[in-house]
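Side project, low priority. Logging it here so it doesn't get lost.
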Amino acid sequence: WEISLHQGFITPDLATYQQFALNDARFATKLPERMKYECASTLPSAVMTAATGLYAASADSETPTLKKPWTNEGRDAYKGESIVVLGGSGSVGQCGKAFACLEQECHCNTKLPSSALQFARLSGFSNIVVTASPANFDLCTQLGGKDATRVIDRSSPTLASDIAQALSGAKPKIVFDAVSSEQTQEIAWDILDDGGVLVLLLSPVINQAKYPAKHMNYIHGVAHFPHLQDFATELFAALTGMLEKEDIVVGSRFTPLQTMGTKKLIIAIIHSQTNLWFCMEDWAQSKMAWRVYAS
């Protein structure tokens, strides 16, 4: 039988973390045979969010979008242009962190997790400027392509000027702010070109009225939202092919901690400084034991 990935929803029938759940087949994609689902379990929501910010029409249909790189028209369409990704090593900045396979026979690509950076590479951007912690510099360079990607320390006291220098004075038409803090939003608005788009994953905190010639797209990458359903259908249909061709790749940056009860789970959440993935075990016996994976 085939394993598929899908994005759930908040309603009880479509939600996950249960023994059985329904799903809309439009928002499912086949998992390549060489991958285990543990490796790709974050892909649906992370890919949907990153792709929505870059390629989907906004709810008001007025914000400019990029051409989709899974089409002939959109592949490598932005050669010679720049893009900025703030928070490039996060789950959406990467377009989905992946989890360590626990089975010896899994043949997942273990080089990289997948990415908004990878979509930028597929779109052909010649200058991909990324912020990340120094520990993730090599990861981001591999994700975006070593010839195109310039990674800047997210903690630099001169972050704004460092980004401007990496852009060689040019202003990008799109900034993908996967952090969406007040600091990153302010920097993003300042470096964005007139007519360009700032993509935010969290609520805007800077008054857009200060930048009347620029656009903002505050997104929720949820396939089930009515205005995103057609886009999501197209994306999930294309995703299997992108995974098969390794246009989008996943890797193993996560280490299993242990199987634990709910009390220890709460402690793990409190002490974790990175993304967590939870797999509920023994649901039928209602033991509520979880396996936790942390980067």
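Brief comment: DSSP finds eight helices and eleven strands in the chain.
Revisit when time allows.
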